[in-house]
Amino acid sequence: MNTPDLAAIRAQFPILSEKIYGKDLVYLDNGASAQKPRAVIDAMVHAMEHQYANIHRGLHWMSERTTDVYEQTRDLAAGLMNAASREEIIFVRNSTEAINLVAHSFGRHLLKPGQAVLISEMEHHSNIVPWQMLRDACGIELRVAPITDDGELDFPAFEALLADGKVGLVAITHMSNVLGTYLPAERVIQTAHAAGALVLLDGSQAIVHRAVDVQTLGCDFYAWTGHKLYGPTGIGVLWGRKALLEAMPPFLGGGDMISSVTFAHSEWARVPHKFEAGTPAILEGIGLGAAIKFVQNLGYDAIAAHEAALTEYGLAHIGEIPGLTIWGHAKDRGGVISFTMDGAHPHDIATLLDRQGIAVRAGHHCAEPLMRRLGLNATARASFAAYTTYGEIDALVAGLRRVREFLA
Amino acid sequence: MNTPDLAAIRAQFPILSEKIYGKDLVYLDNGASAQKPRAVIDAMVHAMEHQYANIHRGLHWMSERTTDVYEQTRDLAAGLMNAASREEIIFVRNSTEAINLVAHSFGRHLLKPGQAVLISEMEHHSNIVPWQMLRDACGIELRVAPITDDGELDFPAFEALLADGKVGLVAITHMSNVLGTYLPAERVIQTAHAAGALVLLDGSQAIVHRAVDVQTLGCDFYAWTGHKLYGPTGIGVLWGRKALLEAMPPFLGGGDMISSVTFAHSEWARVPHKFEAGTPAILEGIGLGAAIKFVQNLGYDAIAAHEAALTEYGLAHIGEIPGLTIWGHAKDRGGVISFTMDGAHPHDIATLLDRQGIAVRAGHHCAEPLMRRLGLNATARASFAAYTTYGEIDALVAGLRRVREFLA
Amino acid sequence: MNAVESLYQSVILKHSRAPRFRVELGQGAAACHCRNPLCGDDVTVQWRAGPAGAIAEIGFTAEGCAILIASSDLMAESVLGLDRDRALKKARAFRAMLDDGPEIAEPTLASFAALRDYPARKRCATLPWQALESLMSGDMKCQS
Amino acid sequence: MNAVESLYQSVILKHSRAPRFRVELGQGAAACHCRNPLCGDDVTVQWRAGPAGAIAEIGFTAEGCAILIASSDLMAESVLGLDRDRALKKARAFRAMLDDGPEIAEPTLASFAALRDYPARKRCATLPWQALESLMSGDMKCQS
Ligand SMILES: Cc1ncc(COP(=O)(O)O)c(C=O)c1O
Ligand SMILES: Cc1ncc(COP(=O)(O)O)c(C=O)c1O
């Protein structure tokens, strides 16, 4: 993206003109959640002002029109991921719920005691804790594939962990929210499949930055979360192969997920509705549709190219600051840069940057086991979006130099 | 509420000035979902335009301010229900998730095989299916308390079902979404407690129309859903007694609900965060706060008085239409009127009313077992809100007379 | 009177009050059962082929709204005597019409186009046609 | 320089670089451990009473940011020699100050008021005081 494009993109995000303590907001916490473009705000406002009712069972104009718009997002999401059918798109609250859904409906019913789930050392808690709960409830083993010092999956070790054929599911991040590492996903999936394991990719970060094609990847489940893709909170997507989804029992019970109910017995609705109990996040689904269109209008090629250039620039300039260590040196990496500074705790870095209007995240990034692997308690993290500018990275670098003057 | 008040209230709901097929919208599907006032829209827009970031772990201005506003809603919700503490308020997607959470975390862990859950014949599927799933997975018995022909809980039968002391939980609606019946909740709760059972109230409908005080009621869990209380979709509340919530294991695993994670073992966060995994519905929480304030500004006394008068008026005038039967004649009832018309299927009624701009619901209202109890497949249902007018009821009555000319 | 009202008045009432084809053909007749999960309406269509393979007998049983009953009755009336291929074509044309396709020639059938704007109701109109399609194509898995 | 920067420069750096009270008092000393679940910082405060019941020895161990270390060190320095009641009062005053209460008299402690706007960071400053409060009040359940 060249500068005029970028200005036009930024103009779509009202919040980017905010001031923090009198300074221009430099929002570099996109990995935690992205800001919302005008189109997303407008779609939600339009629904609330002009076209809203509960969906799916209403026989009146408002309900039918609202159902249409909401269900269009299912088509858009299927298109975004190149799903084989719209019925493979299940709306959930966020990635966390998506993974828990798989841990319950697949893990507790289609995995058998004695089988194992294989995760990696660089997972987000959302892709660790559900499997621990499964292990503790159902006697499914939990295996952890190590990473290299550069922050890549240790492939030989990964293969070794699959060798006994006991692994029923590999649940692994498509892109690390701490190290920026992109997984060699196709190779991982082929290797897992060859060992008889299905694969769930945690795409919470990955799908924000690069095109995802679940059919080309060949994975079995793919989870992501709307608020990181410029969409509203409260809505995410679980994609699963239709045959798998059909074989899985429902997760939550209630309205909309049944086809008939008697006290003795209920029949489940077809997928995807079987997994969508109760009134869905209607307004959020509508907002997510606008977010997907926003991303498609920009185009993943442009987003990926812009962010790759930004990341290179950021790595070079942040890496030059004396006493500063960057964590994660995978060959294939995205726009997330974690770092520490000698003599400065990451939380203090974040607070001092904040006074300069610069928002970065500091902490364990919901990846405590990875922190332990790196021998750290916390890092600071700058993460980029389609609207991030070189100027913002310059501001970060200047800010970090000032922090260093203070603390180091 | 007198007429000028009502006009001022209606002016806060932009959607109420919409036209449907050239006719004024007469929105009488509030029991399915309520419309959103300006304050709710504005709160969400303000967040998206000026003050948004992921919450709870951010050390920067946007994150801290967003956390504040979101967490204020917890205080507001605690105030609304008179909860003993804000920590008893758990944010969920909707009532359905709230009830499923209890079925999982309480039902699967604190109920024992041989114990029973007691529901009623007039439950919404959301308060039936989770208990069926619990029954089928864990050998917990499911009992059903009958209702009388007037649509009241059959109290002697209810007591008899509690008599053997095996019921561990009574899960029952505080107000029927079909019959309008208000449960004699305090009496139900005292009777259940005396028999050693805890009580969950499904307050999805009840809390919209009348003040709820969980401490006076004396119940143990209370579930409700934001979108019916003039709030956004994607957010609801489970209230539970703190000691109970503390005794229950978490439901979903992931970020935010842990205090520490190693691969071997995770420690849970304190309540309420133990039950709130992953990025919450931040914008929706903010919107819900505005909705609660809207309701508190109107005041439950005014809402209840207005709706009681409307309901009386509606029952009288709808009931006069020849060939029309009203279902549900409880002594204590709220603004939900279900009816059938001789020679006219409820779906056809809804379609023909819709062409006149009148939105009612028709179908089983997610209460198939209740339909069977009434010997029906479906009813049509008009349901009222704080902004409903007598004129709208007149329009409905005129519309129904026209439908009758067509069909009967 | 709007299009939906006139659909009710001109077609639906007649065929839903006194449906000629609401009969069970009894054992041996091929049957297909379709359900609209949105509203719970359901219909079972049965038929028997004559010597040349054409539709010699057709009937339905249904539980649901007037649109469903009328559409089922009209469907039966309009395909009686047709061979499989022509019946199948008509079923597809009817379904296509409601999915914003061209109106079909027969005026009573064409008046159902008034339901195009009613996603939930148009399924009530297409349900019997969907059952017919399954029966004629031999693919008995009804896709309700 | 803004208030937070000057807090860092004037108070935090000195006390976090060379904290005098970052020592383990060893066995027998009463200890309270508090953790900030938001950021994972934690602190353990230990103390021993002198013959009159006043704080004769106090020390802390901590893992966390400079604010936590500095606040712990300053806390220890400012309550050494106080009796339980006065220490408890000071702890409450410090915590109240950060909850938008009045600034307290001692200027170094008062400068922490700059953190009022930082909900997540103010817990790092109050954490050692919270541990102290538990120790002084005898209520050992640390409410981190
Ligand atoms: C009595 C009752 N219970 C439960 C629900 C379910 O609410 P939700 O769909 O928001 O989970 C509803 C509303 O549909 C209801 O009326
Ligand atoms: C890699 C990864 N997985 C999972 C999640 C969880 O996403 P959510 O909190 O929206 O469920 C996140 C984001 O926090 C993430 O970065």
Kindly describe this structure:
The complex is a heterotetramer, with two copies of chain A (408 residues) and two copies of chain C (144 residues). Chain A has helices spanning 3-11, 38-50, 61-81, 95-107, 129-138, 155-162, 185-194, 206-209, 214-217, 242-247, 282-298, 300-319, 346-354, 368-374, 390-407; strands at 19-20, 23-24, 26-27, 89-92, 116-120, 141-145, 167-173, 198-202, 221-225, 236-240, 258-261, 266-268, 324-327, 336-341, 358-359, 361-363, 379-383. Chain A is an alpha/beta fold and 408 residues long. Chain A folds into two domains: 3-30 and 299-407, Aspartate Aminotransferase, domain 1, CATH 3.90.1150.10; 42-296, Type I PLP-dependent aspartate aminotransferase-like (Major domain) (Aspartate Aminotransferase, domain 2, 3-Layer(aba) Sandwich), CATH 3.40.640.10. In chain A, the strands form five sheets. Chain A has a seven-stranded mixed β-sheet, with helices on both faces. Chain A has a four-stranded antiparallel β-sheet with strand order 13-14-17-16, covered by helices on one side. In chain A, α2 packs antiparallel against α11, α3 (61-81) crosses α11 and α12 packs parallel to α15. Chain A is globular and about 70 Å long. Chain C has one domain: Sufe protein. Chain: A, CATH 3.90.1010. In chain C, 47% of the residues lie in helices and 16% in strands. Chain C has helices spanning 3-17, 66-79, 84-98, 107-110, 119-137; strands at 30-35, 42-49, 55-63. In chain C, β1 (30-35) and β2 form a beta hairpin. Chain C is globular. The model of chain C has no long low-confidence stretch (mean pLDDT 90). Chains in contact: A-B, A-C, A-D, B-C, B-D. The complex binds pyridoxal-5'-phosphate (2 copies). One pyridoxal-5'-phosphate sits between chains A (94-96, 124, 126-127, 173, 177, 202, 204-205, 225, 366) and B (255, 278-279).
